[in-house]
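Title: Prediction job returns without error message
Component: structure pipeline
Severity: low
Priority: P3
Assignee: unassigned

Description:
Job completed but the reporter wants confirmation the result is attached to the right record. Sequence as submitted:
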Amino acid sequence: MRYRSPECITQTMRQNYRQNGTAFYFLTDDNFSRNRHWEAIFDGMIRLKEEEGIPLRFMMQADVQSYRIPGFVEKARRAGCTQAFIGIESVNPQNLQAVGKNQNSLEDYRRLIDRYRQAEIAVHAGYILGLPFDTPDSLQRDIRSLMDDIPVDHVSFFIMTPLPGSQDFEDLRQTGAFLEKDYNQYEYFHETMTYPGFPEKGSLVRSCLEAWHQFYSFAHMRKILERTPASLYWDALRNFIWYKSAVEVDERHPMMSGYFRCKSRLEIRPGKKPLSRTAYFRKRTGEILHTLRGYMHLIFEMQLLWLCTRHRLSLQSAGSGEEAGEVSGDGNSAKEKQYISAPKPVSLSLPSCPAETVLEFWASVRHNLRKRRWQHIPWLQLCRRMYCDGRVGVHFAFVCLRQMGGFLRTFLPGTRF
């Protein structure tokens, strides 16, 4: 890997901001906490934030023991860290021992999360499915433990995959074990080897999808946002939109997905015959309609989630306004706080209705529509519900545009939102 000195990193960030407004970064060191120059890099970023007013924000990768390093978490926050990706791998002690992660423990997980949470840094856990002691039943228990006992803010699930060229891949190849021949499948969302606890083909993929749905259920996302600091609220909501759109709409791993797949009739794998224009049009039209239906459901769920949790923004941001140019104790300038903090909640005079009731109502309507049971649809209540949800949708779109406009400017320099 090409090495960059702390001075080079600082100069690059300064230049990127001045030329195109880039202020968000992902520090891709596999374990930034073990970079021997981490403190010098953080000090340089802190100077950019506090002395030059550059609103730096970044995500980093660190290990479970990183919270023990004196000053690491505090300086990370002052430098602009909003999210730390931690390789938790598993909460099953047998699996941790099997993969040589003896230094990881549930108690360390809890201390790590508490320490980062005190600094208002979200913890994003990397979790591997299909380890030697995993079964469909054990995974359900482990995911529940991940949600309740060591409550991380975000999780990325990965199916155990022996990447070609790795030692695991070579060991399996030499023993004659099954290995998937199609290298396109080696993207953490397919079964590429034999898994002892999942003898039925496809069972691990099903368990993986269940894990995504279980962790990112409406109830659990609401629970996460209820404890999320106001400064990280929109980061968390953006992450929920991205992950749920990938898994539920695009049906792919978030690391391999976008918001809309652009396809060409002629860009296919070698050896396959392209579809005719008519057949391709019919197929692609069906895919686009499926995607649009999925996004309609997703947007509705996200706006309802926002409506249920937006009160946290006013509770946590009350009395936190700084004067222009003032730097707060955590190193965030007033300019940055304007960028990362959530707005005051929009006043909505809507009938009181629990979120679960609304979700159940629309689920019932969709079921009756699919079954063509027109007589079972409460049409008057449907009209009222559409009116109320439409009003919420307008407010939600307006607030999202204001909040996520700053985020989009990071990737689309020169664009006004």
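Comment from assignee: result matches the submitted record. The longest strand covers residues 81-89.
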